[in-house]
Amino acid sequence: MRRLAVLALTCVLASPAAAETVHFPSATTPPTPLQQRLAKEYGTPIDPQPTTELVGELYRPSGSGPYPAVVALHGCAGRGSKAYEDATAARFMTDGYAVLFVDSFKPRGVTERCHAAASDETVDRVMDAYGGLDYLAGLPFIDASRIALVGYSQGAMVALSIVGLDGIDALVDRHFKAAIAYYPLCGASRGDVSIPTLVLIGALDDWTPARDCEAMMARRTGKGASLKLIVYPGAYHAFDAATLRDRPRTYQGHHLEYNEAADRAAWSDAAAFLRQAFAP
Asked: Crossing angle for the helix pair 82-94 and 2-14, nearest 10 degrees?
């Protein structure tokens, strides 16, 4: 039976996952109490904030749900390949999750944001994540109370920004249940988080060093929700990208390499984390 179960999972991961291209707006923060009071006193409506129409790929398990779900944020080079997204989504769907990959760049005409010169682009990825959250929460087959945030590289940095205690999460009406950050740059994070958060990083990462995440853990005050860091020995940046299998590369001056042992361990750790976070 165990061999059959392993074979079934292998077939699921090897087969292409069906995705639906969807469109939804980036989120905005609600009016402040002061803005609401002044609008009421003077009888002037509050103008809606401008938003960007985003695009994403939505993967869902078979059946009618309602399913827990994850909003996935890409790295500084933009969306990953279809093969990468299909394989990642297949894993989540095998565990019963729907997945929404949010594209923050293409709708804005941005190619990448890895260079310092590109950092001035006005891409509000934090609000994009909440736009994905609002979109999923409005779908009849999604359990709106069980939606997590998963970020990769720069997307993981966005995730850490979102979950920071007393940060943007305090200004919005709907919240993520948990967050997972794959190889983020941890230097700017204080380490106190508002929701359960898991950080997964390679010990040999020369782009987002593990030591910065270890320093983040040392800065924690103990306030807020739980934050867990797992460092995988022998692993570089993008250790979960099977499209790099046997083809390590240098990108933006940094080493990228797939590591099967770290990839499998990270997925096991992520799956266990989500099961605990979504437990009744």
From this structure: 150
